[in-house]
Structure formats: C-alpha cells, structure tokens
Design a protein that fits this description.
Blueprint: H1 4-31, H2 36-45, H3 62-73, H4 77-96, H5 99-111, E1 116-119, E2 135-139, E3 142-153, E4 160-167, E5 174-181, E6 187-189, E7 203-214, H6 225-260, E8 263-264, E9 267-268, H7 273-301, H8 306-335, H9 346-356, H10 363-378
Helix pairs in contact: 1-3, 3-4, 3-6, 4-5, 4-6, 6-7, 6-8, 6-9, 7-8, 8-9, 8-10
Length: about 375
C-alpha cells in the first residue's frame, strides 16, 4: 500500500512520537495549554508541508498526511491536531483560492510560518453548513461581515481565519469563505471553551461586527463558495479518520501493556480468554478502519471528487472514529478501576475519541451522506 518514501516517513514520525511526544502528552491534556514546543517540533521536522503540492515543498499526498497523523495521534492527539487545523484551510485555499491568494498564504502555511483556522459552525445550525446566518454585505469593493460563530479551533493562534458567510439577500443567499486576518477591526475572539477532550488546541466563539474585508479575500466566485467548503471537508475527512485509527491503536497499545503486567486469580490477565478475544476484536476493528481511511486518502490523491469522494470520505471518517470510541471504551474496561484514574493515560484516549465522533461533521451527518449516495444509486 505504501511506497518506500512513505514507510520511511512513517518510521521517522513513529520514533519521534515515542521519544518526544510521549513524555509531553499527559501534561498537555492536564494543563489544556497550547503546546508551542510541539508546534515548533513539527515545524523543525517539516511536517506541516506534507500534503502540500511539490511546488510548496510537500509530497502532494493525503496518504502521507494520514500516515503522519496516525502515528502522532497514537501517542498525542493534541500534537496531531496542530497539523489538522492547518490542513483544512489549506485544502480550501488550494481548491478555490485565486493565484494571488495561493501565493500569499500557502507558502507560509506549508512552513508553519502562518497559522490558520476555519470557522463554519454556528449555534443554531451545528453541522448544517447551509443553515448559517453570518452575512457578508457588499459595500463598494469590500464586504462587511456580521454574525457569530462557535467552536472555531485554533482561533487565538491563527494569523487568519476562513469564515463562512452568506452573500446576497435572505431568499437567494449563497455561502462563501472569506479570508479574515485576525487584526481586522470588528473581529472579536471569545474565551476558549473548557473541553472534555482535544484540550491542547483551543476552540473559541467568534463575534463579527461589520468586519470589512476586500473582495480579494473571498475564495472563488459568489456562487462557488459552498462547493469549496464541501470539497475542503471531503479532502480533510480521511485525515480525521487517520486520527481515529491512531487513537484506537494507541488505546490498544496501552491496554496490552497493562493486561500483560497484571495478575488475577493466579494467572496473567492477558491469559483470560474473554480478555484475549476482546483484544482480538479491537485489532480487527482497527485494521478495517485503517483500510477504509487509506482507501479514501488514495482517492483524494487520485483526483476523485464530487459525490464519490464525499461517500468515501464519510465512510472513512464515520467508521474510523466510531472504531476509536469502541476501542477506547474496551481499553478502559480492560484497565478496570485504574482506567478512571488520572494516573493512567487511557481515560485521555477515551475523552479524545468522543470528540472525534462529533468534529468535522457528526457521524450522524456522515451516515446521511452515505445514505443519500445509496438512495441515489437505487434511483
């Protein structure tokens, strides 16, 4: 499945994760402080550029990006998250940005010199992107953006945010993405949300009060914005799936280490058939999820788009993150009472897994996408 270069990349990241990330992972989660040292480590390793086209120093491969994220998330969800929040805005700009926008922003995103965020979600619409109410009203050669957003991850550290807003009147409004630099007058970033998981990278509300941005900051044409948003999410979802695979594999790693060192009723816990079958089922689920994720990632690399890419991405994201939740739950059970103690890292995996079932489109939304594909074929 992987070429020699990809296997070498995976082995490098696996080694770095064990040596550099593992000692920091619990503390990042406990303190909920942004891991600037991990951000700098990723920059030094050149990992931000991995999925970027070769002209920006990358591999142009979502498969390679998934390999990196899987290995990082196996050890530290939050460090992997530093890459993911950068890559979704990248996908949107690459897919719908003008040449000027690409030249202005992509080199900095590739090196980590620039940090980005994307803001779609609003309190009244959740995963329903089409239901957003933030407006972009034309005034001369500019737009004035007004509205509010929630759960904008990485907002306090981003140099710019891709903000989704509707243009046109209420009856004929269309969604567009706008590049909003953080120093724009009228943009306010609210307090970071206290989260059960994914605690190291903050998520905040945004408040926009007639934020003026030039027309040159709009991605695509006014009629093209929704397509750009959806394609960006489709290209990002295999990477979200890779986070699920990595998290599940890490939970299984910890569970195996634990049961091999514990004894009950005169024998090793790992010798009980019920425990062995539970571990086997966890491994089966992980391998199935891994296959689906890399199939979807290969589809992105091969240029698949539209409804077929949406279907593959939804299947990968949904199955992999549901697997992460199941495996983390079973791992917690293997730990027994120790699993609910902060002295062991397994409850961190459990909390982070729950987040994955919700972010980037809930898994109920993914099932809707898959079902629409099935019904369309049936017709």
């Amino acid at each position: 499945m992987f070429n020699d270069e990809q296997r070498q990349l995976r082995d490098l990241v696996r080694r770095v994760a064990r040596e550099r990330l593992a000692p920091r992972a619990d503390m990042i989660d406990r303190t909920a402080e942004y891991p600037q040292d991990m951000f700098q480590l990723l920059r030094d390793l050149g990992l931000f550029t991995i999925p970027f086209p070769t002209e920006y120093g990358g591999t142009g491969s979502v498969v390679s990006a998934c390999l990196v994220v899987e290995e990082l998330c196996r050890v530290c969800y939050n460090t992997a998250y530093l890459l993911v929040v950068q890559w979704t805005p990248f996908a949107a700009i690459l897919g719908g940005g003008s040449d000027e926008q690409k030249q202005r922003l992509l080199p900095g995103l590739a090196t980590g010199e620039l940090r980005a965020a994307i803001s779609l979600t609003e309190s009244q619409s959740g995963s329903d992107v089409s239901g957003i109410k933030t407006r972009a009203r034309r005034e001369g050669g500019d737009y004035l953006l007004s509205g509010s957003k929630i759960w904008c991850t990485n907002a306090p550290y981003a140099d710019f945010i891709l903000v989704a807003a509707k243009t046109g009147d209420d009856a004929d409004g269309t969604i567009n993405l706008f590049i909003v630099e953080k120093d724009r007058k009228g943009l306010e970033i609210g307090r970071k949300e206290p989260k059960m998981g994914a605690r190291g990278v903050p998520s905040c509300p945004l408040f926009l009060d007639n934020v003026r941005v030039p027309e040159a900051n709009r991605l695509g044409t006014e009629r093209d914005g929704f397509r750009i948003v959806m394609e960006a999410l489709n290209h990002a979802r295999p990477v979200i799936g890779a986070r699920g695979v990595g998290l599940a594999q890490g939970a299984l790693d910890h569970a195996l280490d634990f049961i091999k060192t514990r004894r009950a009723f005169g024998q090793s816990v790992s010798d009980f058939q019920g425990i062995r079958w539970m571990a086997a089922d966890m491994a089966i689920q992980i391998e199935a999820a891994r296959a689906l994720v890399y199939r979807a990632a290969e589809a992105v690399d091969q240029g698949v788009s539209g409804h077929e890419m949406a279907r593959l991405a939804a299947i990968a994201k949904c199955h992999a993150t549901d697997t992460a939740m199941r495996v983390a739950t079973d791992a917690m059970q293997m730990f027994g009472a120790a699993g609910i103690s902060d002295d062991y890292p397994i409850n961190r995996y459990f909390r982070d897994a729950k987040v994955l079932q919700i972010v980037e489109g809930t898994n109920q939304i993914q099932r809707n996408i898959i079902a629409r594909s099935l019904m369309g074929k049936a017709r």
